[in-house]
Amino acid sequence: MDRVPARPFRSRDWFADPARSDMTALYLERFMNYGLTPAELRCGKPIIGIAQTGSDLSPCNRIHVELAKRTRDGIIAAGGIPMEFPTIPIFENCRRPTAALDRNLAYMTLVETLYGYPIDAVVLTTGCDKTTPAGIMAVSTVDIPAIVLSGGPMLDGWHDGELVGSGTVIWRSRRKLAAGEIDEEEFLQRATDSAPSAGHCNTMGTASTMNAVAEALGMSLTGCAAIPAPYRERGQMAYETGRRIVDMAYEDLRPSKILTRAAFLNAIRVVSAIGGSSNAQPHIMAMAQHAGVELDMADWADHGYDVPLIVNMQPAGKYLGERFHRAGGVPAVMHELSEAGMLDTSCLTITGRSVGDNLGGRVTNDREMIHTLEAPLLERAGFLVLKGNLFDHAIMKTSVISDAFRMRYLSTPGAENRFEARAVVFDGSDDYHHRINDPALGIDAQCILVIRGSGPIGWPGSAEVVNMQPPDALIQQGVLTLPTLGDGRQSGTSDSPSILNVSPESAVGGGLAWLRDGDMIRIDLEAGTCNALVEPDEIARRKTEPVPPIPPSNSPWEELYREKTGQLAQGGVLDFAVKYRGIAARTPRHNH
Predict the structure, then answer these.
(1) Is residue 37 part of a domain?
(2) Confidence class for position 555, pLDDT limits 50, 70, 90
(3) Predicted TM-score of the model (pTM)
(4) Using one digit for the tens of pLDDT, what is the confidence trace for 400-444?
(5) Got the DSSP string for 111-126?
(6) Which of 165, 167, 159, 153 lies closest to 230, judged by CA?
(7) 208-225 per-position pLDDT tens digit
(8) Both 266 and 347 in a single domain?
(9) Domain presence at residue 377
(10) Where does a domain end: 339, 358, 377?
(11) Are 509 and 408 in the same domain?
(12) Residue 355 burial (CB < 10 Å; 0-12/13-18/19+)?
């Protein structure tokens, strides 16, 4: 017996509209030129899009070029018709001036594709950092059935018998190079050895974090996020994803039914438990905005900060992605949280079942990799939300505070978790790289490195530049990390406990604009405050001065991005776009 969809497939309006047979012929015509038949497109089966993020310019996602074949197999086996289409490349390591520009661009182009073409449901292929939020933001706007299929992390990296994680090894080797412990050839070899296979970062960087977030939100099949790219299970997951999206099309199971406030709070807690990337904050805020879910920075403090760190994975821990997968991956982490009553297990997921139903029996078999909440790696691992006279909102990833950093800055008797430091201010990363080793700056262990002009408007796009390393001379003395502060972001693979994602940024008149070299800054982690010790009258005087200049826009998109994008505390979204939701319910008008 033919299946009946819960509501008519939107593709029927293109291919089976009896009132406009002329338009049906026009729409059908060119699909014939690669072998499709009118019977296929008019038979009433759902058209399933595969949003292809893999390409030679997107090496972290390139595995999807092959995985899409298994996804297509699953779609066909379940009675759907696959249509694969390209998306714009997003490659964090290579895109200049920053790949952050591309998240909102990918969002917009995917919205237009999903809305303007005869697609009934879509598989979002993800991997590298921003491909996940861009896809979820888009399907929230369009609101057609959608499922996230990540490409998975690379195999674990090894160098001279030591685990070396992608991204993380770059920041650590950079310090070794400055200290004279390795040469450039050794640096490059460590980087090469950290990336031994297809896949995205094998650390708990932004890629692994955001794919874990997709699973925590209920947008992926259970266990999808952590399967390494080369494993056989990854191809099997692609096939099952293809099968499941067809069922979702018939069930009309759309993102609006899954992406609830409770689901986003679950995701925040999971980010804390896994030691996730600080980039999760703007990305989760962006997805919530496009889903029409109320979420603010207080939710990170109220629901995330007190969650313990239980995943022992670089950069906050020791191990890498393969062991995390074998230990049970995201479902095992969520099982620990659910057993402690820290998750809303009633949330609906793309499986058609609840979070709780999906987690049955998902207990880890590796307590070195996934700890219990009673014996965590760190008691409070969430992002610390800060405020003060320099900004309204910023975060600090406390799970990467090293013992040496804690001893130097946060262990003064009677003033634990508080310190003061002298500001050394840089206007962008070019200024930082040019001057960081200048002895005239007098940088010592009592300084805080500040970078401004690196936010959404100033850069533009918000660059990953806040994890500034100390001058070479300090590193050679054993001071490997200084406090850092900035209105940009940093790589999720970094182990720097920076104060970052500062909002509002310098370029729009935020407090960093009036900060000066030599100003003392007091940071109190207990109170969640960060203040420059400058008299109010002097602050008022400085605010009358122009903000530090920013580079000109060098492309049409950079100019448009600067005009329309908000601050990181609210997700750095295109502000005008969040009012568009559920647009697939309104069929686009004919083109002739």
Answers:
(1) no
(2) very high
(3) 0.97
(4) 999 999 999 999 999 999 999 999 999 999 999 999 999 999 999
(5) HHHHHHS--SEEEEEE
(6) 153
(7) 999 999 999 999 999 999
(8) yes
(9) no
(10) 358
(11) yes
(12) buried
